[in-house]
Specification:
The protein has 18 helices and 14 strands. It is α/β, with parallel strands linked by helices and 434 residues long. It folds into 3 domains: 195 residues, 3-Layer(aba) Sandwich (Rossmann fold), CATH 3.40.50.720; 88 residues, N-(1-d-carboxylethyl)-l-norvaline Dehydrogenase, domain 2, CATH 1.10.1040.10; 135 residues, NAD(P)-binding Rossmann-like Domain (Rossmann fold, 3-Layer(aba) Sandwich). Helix 9 crosses helix 12 and helix 11 packs antiparallel against helix 12. The protein starts with a strand and ends in a 6-residue tail after the last strand. The protein binds uridine-5'-diphosphate-glucuronic acid. Uridine-5'-diphosphate-glucuronic acid binds next to helix 9. This is UDP-glucose 6-dehydrogenase. Its EC number is 1.1.1.22. It holds the Pfam family UDPG_MGDP_dh_C. One of its GO terms (biological process) is polysaccharide biosynthetic process.
Length: 434
């Protein structure tokens, strides 16, 4: 099949590359000339494990091309994916101007039937708005399909190639047939393609992310309670997770969820509910609890040292909002750095991928180490904000020599409590004994 993907952000690029991998011819379009030129010369602008290999393979086999020319991209393409940003506007609702603008541009260019697929996370009712634009600006028949993405950063290629499910919001039989053929290679194991109406599909995406954010937040509160009552959150997590109705996954407590999706989508669902005069109380609490969870590690530091941290030097391991990404959007690490600096401390950070993005925010206000060991040199304490695998089994003999004091505040529960006591550390983690 010939496919156009409008928008070469994270979702667009993963979608385009993975669709090319099963033999489709994909043209990715973007208005950013710089980005398109880079990709034309073989440079992948994002870090995502496994993507680089597929990106180069499909470019070299002429199945994946890049252009700024929308007309040439959609010419002969039967399916047009829209993977455009929907940033929150001032009051937390999703800004649809990119999507609706692109729909108008496409409507002005098409000359035969197309399936218009929306991959962006959009409020309920967006497919209707896109349909209305096509009706207004062209007489050519189109079907508009809502096809939310459930990719996780860091494992996006795997998620796309073997999705738990594909959700397709359309009532058009013609579009259903085309989209099932397109996705058939990805669900060979028998995972479902779920057809539903557009609104249900649009809401499914928000409901999924908000449910997961709620699950994490619930566990964070259980962890906070564990500390107060003297219970161990790891035991409680296993104790409840073995019940299949609850499930083992997404129960790891930490220092709050971050990233470009959960915070934005939970906000947007609350806003959408408000618009329908529905008070989505549980999600409002989730936002509130998550905001305070982001400062939990700093609260522990202050409790230990007092409010004035001047003269103290901290090492911070982990900047990215989660492992296997360079993405620092809404990352708890940013709150930690800001708080440490505002209380007079100095900070040296290390992250396998996130340092460049962090430099753009903090510049030379903090130091950037080349590796985890360099970061802890002379530190009064080590703080851990991201559970990169490389942090899980470090050489504590080396660390103990390099650090000024053996003090660790761990926001991701990386180490065994007994081991840390044996090594002579003050080790303060989340929801576990001191
Ligand atoms: C999330 C969803 O998991 C994807 O299904 C969805 O497609 C995506 O948002 C999106 O809307 O585009 P992502 O933001 O990449 O994916 O990251 P997750 O792996 O879901 O992690 C989100 C946050 O939850 C991170 O800050 C992570 O540290 C935190 N988390 C996750 C926990 O604190 N505990 C857990 O047990 C799991």
């Amino acid at each position: 099949m010939k496919i156009a993907v409008i928008g070469t952000g994270y979702v667009g690029l993963v979608t385009g590359t993975c669709l090319a991998e099963t033999g489709n011819h994909v043209t990715c379009v973007d208005i950013n000339t710089d980005k398109i030129e880079k990709m034309q010369s073989g440079i992948l602008p994002i870090y995502e494990p496994g993507l680089e290999l597929l990106f180069h393979r499909n470019i070299s086999q002429n199945r994946l091309t890049f252009t700024t020319d929308l007309a040439s991209a959609i010419d002969q393409s039967q399916i047009i994916f829209m993977a455009l940003p929907t940033p929150p506007n001032g009051d937390g609702a999703a800004d649809l101007s990119f999507i609706l603008g692109a729909a108008k541009d496409v409507a002005g260019l098409i000359t035969d039937y197309k399936v218009i697929v929306n991959k962006s996370t959009v409020p309920v009712g967006t497919a209707e708005k896109v349909k209305a634009i096509f009706k207004q600006y062209t007489h050519i028949e189109v079907d508009v399909v809502s096809n939310p993405e459930f990719l996780r950063e860091g494992v996006a290629v795997e998620d796309f190639m073997k999705p738990d499910r594909v959700v397709l919001g359309t009532v058009s039989e013609r579009a259903k047939k085309i989209m099932s053929d397109l996705y058939a290679p990805y669900v060979r194991q028998g995972n479902p393609i779920l057809f539903m109406d557009e609104k249900s599909s649009e809401l499914t995406k928000y409901a999924a992310n908000s449910f997961l954010a709620t699950k994490i937040t619930f566990m964070n509160e259980i962890a906070n309670l564990c500390e107060l009552v003297g219970a161990d959150v790891d035991s409680v997590r296993k104790g409840i997770g073995s019940d299949e109705r609850i499930g083992k996954r997404f129960l790891f407590p930490g220092i709050g969820y971050g990233g470009s999706c959960f915070p934005k989508d939970v906000q947007a669902l609350v806003k959408a509910s408000d618009d329908y005069a529905y008070d989505f109380k549980i999600l409002k609490s989730v936002i509130e609890v998550n905001d305070s969870q982001k400062t939990v590690l700093i609260d522990k530091v202050i409790k230990y040292y007092g409010d004035d941290l001047s003269g103290k030097h901290f090492a911070l391991w982990g900047l990215a909002f989660k492992p296997e990404t360079d993405d620092i959007r809404e990352a708890p690490s940013l709150y930690i750095i800001k708080a440490l600096l505002s209380k007079g401390a100095t900070v040296t950070v290390f992250d396998p991928e996130g340092s460049e993005n962090t430099k753009a925010i903090f510049g030379d206000k903090i130091s950037y180490a080349a590796n985890a060991y360099e970061a802890v040199k002379g530190a009064d304490a080590l703080l851990i904000a991201t559970e990169w695998s490389v942090f899980r089994n470090p050489d504590f003999d080396q660390i103990s020599v390099l650090m000024k004091e053996r003090v660790i505040f761990d926001g991701r529960n990386l180490f065994n409590l007994d081991k840390m006591i044996d090594l002579g550390y003050y080790y303060n983690s989340i929801g576990r004994h001191l």
